[in-house]
Amino acid sequence: MKPASPPRSILITGASSGLGAALARHYAAAAAHLVLVGRNRERLASVADDCRRAGGTADARPADVADAGAMAALVAAADAATPLDLVIANAGVSAGTLGGPESSEQVRRLFAINIDGVVNTVQPSIDAMRRRGRGQIALVSSLAAWRGFPGAPVYCASKAAIKTWGEALRGSLHAEGIAVSVICPGYVETAMTEKNDFWMPMMMPAEKAARIIARGLARNRPRIAFPWPLYAAVVLIGLLPPALIDPLMRRLPAKAGSLSG
User: Fold this and answer.
1) Can you give the pTM of this predicted structure?
2) Is 109 exposed, middle or buried (0-12, 13-18, 19+ CB in 10 A)?
3) Closest by CA position to 220, among listed 184, 166, 164, 182
4) What CA–CA distances, in Å, run from 21 to 24, 139, 200, 206?
5) Where residue 99 falls among pLDDT bands split at 50, 70, 90?
6) Is residue 1 assigned to a domain?
7) Considering 27, 155, 187, 231, which one is annotated as catalytic?
8) Of the candidates 148, 154, 155, 99, which has an alpha carbon nearest to the alpha carbon of residue 246?
9) How many angstroms separate the first and last alpha carbons of the chain?
10) For the sheet containing 33-38, what is the strand order?
11) How confident is the model at residue 95 (pLDDT cuts 50, 70, 90)?
12) Is 33 a domain residue?
């Protein structure tokens, strides 16, 4: 099953910066109508202005994806105004153990954004698309989903949950005409990766990542994972027995301890 035509109405969370902003600008160039969701009102307005200048229309909707009620109302209102063809659940934050073990507060807040925030975006979108029997949903995970890295335990766990849920949704929603793709990027130049004080192999600009993602979504790829050498490496790491790989994992650098995204 492929999307019937290029998406004309698109909702993107985490659109105020990084990959979300790059995706918004990419689709704006194709004259799409965009509903942009983000927590930073000023940055979101700036991205919306960029999209309008690029030829699209943009509706900036400041919101916290962790607020289930607010997101349900936001998605319902956006869909009622212009039925959504594509929803990209991109909002997420990063954190790790650089400053020591992750606090309970950090663990719960990261899960609230990276897992609950995706659920709060996807579930009302499914409800809307199910009624008309069509639509496309993309969930942004990460190459970090294949193995728990000691330097970022909660981040890896959150991305693994999104990857697995998205893969399962693809099968369960197929008969209802809803396409689902899971996006697993490697290192992308964003505010999130700026805080990483270690070598990040095969880092790419957000604009290039957005083009790869849009091309994969147009083809209804089940999994859009890139760059492929890094993808192959993490899949191999995930297959190796823990007794063999754990000593190496313990030597890897840690992510910054505070939430960023």
Assistant:
1) 0.92
2) middle
3) 182
4) 5, 16, 21, 9
5) confident
6) no
7) 155
8) 148
9) 33
10) 57-62, 33-38, 9-13, 86-89, 135-140, 178-185, 223-226
11) confident
12) yes
CATH, residue 58:
3.40.50.720
pLDDT above 70 as % of the chain: 92
Give 58-93 pLDDT, tens digit per residue.
Answer: 999 999 999 999 999 999 999 999 999 999 999 999
Range list of H helices, the chain: 18-28, 41-54, 68-81, 104-111, 117-132, 153-173, 191-194, 206-218, 228-239, 242-249
Q: Residue 155 catalytic?
A: yes
In a domain, 235, yes or no: yes
Into how many domains does the chain fold? Answer: 1
261 assigned to some structural domain: no
- Identify the three-state secondary structure at position 40: coil
Can you give the residue range of the structural domain that contains 208?
9-249
